[in-house]
Amino acid sequence: MNPFLEELFDKTAIDAKYLESYLSPNQWQYLESNLQSIEDLDNNLYTDNEGENLEVLLQFLVCHKDDITVILREPSRKEILMVLYTSSVISGNYDCFRFDLSKFEKTYNSIGQILTLYRIGRKDEDMKSLGNSWSKSISGLRSYAQSSSIDGVNRPVFEARINDSEVLFEITSQEDEIVLKNDFRHVECEILDTKQQQQIFS
Fold first, then answer.
1. Has residue 178 been placed in a domain?
2. Do residues 127 and 175 share a domain?
3. Are 196 and 148 in contact (CB under 8 A)?
4. Lesser CB count within 10 Å: N end or C end of the chain?
5. Which residues contact 19 (CB under 8 A, 6 or more apart)?
6. What is the pLDDT of residues 25-68, one digit of tens each?
7. Does 166 share its domain with 136?
8. Average pLDDT over all residues of the chain
9. Are residues 99 and 7 in the same domain?
10. Is the pTM of this model over 0.70?
């Protein structure tokens, strides 16, 4: 990985090691060759000829060029990470994005309560690989499925009880989204069965 890509992924908190498992050697070569400075984001970088995972990554970088430029120059501007995390460019249909949440600030005020949360997982997600973005309500879960064009019946759906001390930040949206800390622990968690999923998404 060239020095600019290393800095880019580090400052924007994109998990580069996770991304590596989704991009082919040809796609990485495209990135290496075409993205060596922030100015390259202006140089017709976008392509849809190298596969969907690279396409959505490039679209994200191009759309957020101004935000990325700021955080590269001022790494202390942690609020920009929230803008990137909540980008409408990142659809739930693309699993190649993961952020290093250890680089985000905790802004949620914990009061010692237990929250019941819901999550539509990645296709291969299980109890040992739970993601960090959850919804506080069934209606929020439905909104997430609709906005991301996800079939909630054909993916694992989780219901968990979480101590609110595990919450990193909250996002005001129709999805009622809450983001949990890295390596969070749940009090209880279960995968809903097909009948329960059908009741939610039918």
1. yes
2. yes
3. no
4. C
5. 9, 57, 96, 97, 98
6. 999 999 999 999 988 988 778 777 778 888 889 989 999 999 99
7. yes
8. 91
9. yes
10. yes
Task: For residue 149, give its domain range.
Answer: 114-201
- As a whole-number percent, the residues of the chain with pLDDT over 90 amount to 65
pLDDT higher than threshold 90 for residue 164 = yes
Domain boundary among 70, 103, 136: 103
60 in the same domain as 118 = no
Q: How many domains does the chain have?
A: 2
At 202 the pLDDT is 82
Contact between residue 178 and residue 117 where contact means Cβ atoms under 8 Å apart:
yes
Nearest by Cα to 133 from 156, 117, 145: 117
CA 101 – CA 14 distance, rounded (Å)? 9
Task: Tell me how far CA of residue 62 lies from CA of 34, 56, 89, 112, 201, in angstroms.
Answer: 13, 10, 10, 41, 34
Residue 193 is assigned to a structural domain of this protein: yes
pLDDT tops 70 at residue 162 = yes
pLDDT digits (tens, 9 = 90+) for 8-25: 999 999 999 888 888 899
Compute φ and ψ for 63, nearest 5 degrees: -65, -30
- Calculate Rg over the CA atoms of the chain: 18
Whether the CB-CB separation of 131 and 121 falls below 8 Å is answered with yes
Indicate if 122 and 95 belong to the same structural domain: no
Q: What is the DSSP letter of 192?
A: P
Q: Identify whether residues 55 and 93 lie together within a single domain.
A: yes
